[in-house]
Amino acid sequence: MKSRIGWLVISCLIVLGLSITSCAQAPTVTSTGPAPTAPNPPALTSTVLPATPLASTSVGAKVPKYGGTITSVTTSNPSGFDPGVINSVMCGAIYFTHDKLARGDWSKGPAGTGQTDWLDYLTCEWDLLGPSLAESWETPDDTTIIYRVRKGAHWWSKAPLNGREITADDVVFSINRQWNAPAAFHTSSWGASSRPTSVKALDKYTVEVKVPPNLLGMHLSQTGGFLYIEPPEVVQQFGNYQDWKVMVASGPFILTDYVSSSSLTFQKNANYWAHDPIHPENQLPYVDGLKRLIIPDASTRLAAMRTGKVDYLQALSYDDFKELHKQVPELETIRLYGNSSFLVARVDKPPFNDLRVRQAMNLALNKQEILDQYYSGQGDLLSWPWYNWKANAGAYIPLKDLPTKPTTPDSRCGAQEVWGYNPDKAKQLLAEAGYPSGFKTNVVCTAAQVDLLSICKDQLGKIGINMDLRVMETGVFNSFLRGRQHDQMIVTAGKFYFLPWFFYEVRVENFDNCAYYEDPKTRAAYNECAKYVMKDVNKTWQILKDITPFMIEQCVMGGYLPIPYAYDMWWPWLQNWYGATRVGYWEPESNSMYAWADVNMRKAMGH
Prior knowledge:
The chain is of the alpha+beta class and 607 residues long. The chain contains 16 helices and 22 strands. The protein has helices at 8-16, 94-97, 168-180, 185-190, 216-225, 232-238, 298-306, 318-327, 355-364, 367-374, 423-432, 450-461, 474-483, 520-530, 537-553, 599-604, and strands at 69-74, 102-104, 129-131, 134-141, 144-149, 198-203, 206-210, 253-259, 263-268, 289-294, 312-316, 332-337, 342-345, 379-380, 439-446, 465-472, 489-492, 563-570, 574-575, 582-583, 587-588, 596-597.
């Protein structure tokens, strides 16, 4: 395999705010035995092997221990620390330092009931969202949410808060600030028209949020489960807390040191309000602190893992997994999906505004060959909008069951056909669209994507599409992606599977819609879906399933490409981990507060 699969959090940092993709669940593998060989699936299949549960996933398998440090790795510096200044998904420390009103229910994961595996985030299964700083909430009507703020939760014992209790006024401040800041997640994702119509404290521990019609479910999930509570005093005194040294929050870990391009250091919040839902007598967190190393180089990250200097790595490529598994067979492993890649074309102007051109591009891309040769057969052909995994089961349609015939007058291919390879028909479609000799185009990308895109360039060239690669430095590329500044195509990952009812890539106002795609059918499905969010799971999934063939046939993501598998690995001394690093709506690695480090085991293993 030529490519290296980027960590999903990074993908979603690129896609979500500029931010993931993320990794979605695929089959798991155990930590013992030989590394699996590459399968060779037949053409036009979308096969996923049976999952093998990890040996460590039995409930109550190990006794919790206090002490020790969890050491992890990231590839770059955080873009900032204040979700009121920049998009919260770009605040790389916020998942450890801040609390929300609601969060993913750890007791329903592999450490508890097993209702979910938390190998990917909450999609439409809203009963997986549990209380956090809000002990409870209620919806007396379709435009009102009442949050009951948890009594006895305190800010860090750090000036200017000095450990004071969190109140309803703090929640009101946070909701208003993050919903009104132009660069914050909520405004940039949902737009000003989706903001709460009013937010007020009814008493010291009760908050009333009034919302626009048909957006109650969205606010329950996004204001409740995707907005960080912050103290007004810090913003009033310093303007913001982009300077990490003035940050004060209420979360399980306190950021005590940050050295650019080196590391972030976190200390346990000894006064944290939360307890382990599986062991309710135990105050969280278990470990004394976190150490997060900043290591851009992949080979250095692998060496750190191999030598026990870091406790876990995420989203490894198949090649890297094989090598680590061979060198350190005792590492625990789970297989997931890696980052998808698509040649997303702007459909708001020629030539890609013509569906025949987009379909021709797909028929010219030999996806099976790319899967077999570039990804060593380690992946899945069907990569959008759903993955073949538990969290998308309500809408997933196997490739073999997708329609084979066009469903709209402007279409020349069925949803199943666009995943196939037919260069002769591709040439016919280009000629029919007025491009008998093809055309020139370009794709914005980074150096890491050049190998894959070179294959695509060669395949497209055979039908007359001459695609130049506009290779950019990562920071510049991210700006292009975040601002949708490409003039023709850009490489990006899909994220429809992540928050399905959000309709990321088919609402033109959303910054993840790099195709600038808009259609009355998808808009109607989005509006209909909004009525059932946080209310009727089955109805929501049915709406999503019904619109799926149409969206695929429309080639919304431009040129579809297969999705590779990825692998998460961790040392056995990191316990209560399960690879369950994707909790709630967007809480990457927040399982760190529930995990413990077996220091004695670590020493016994020579580290």
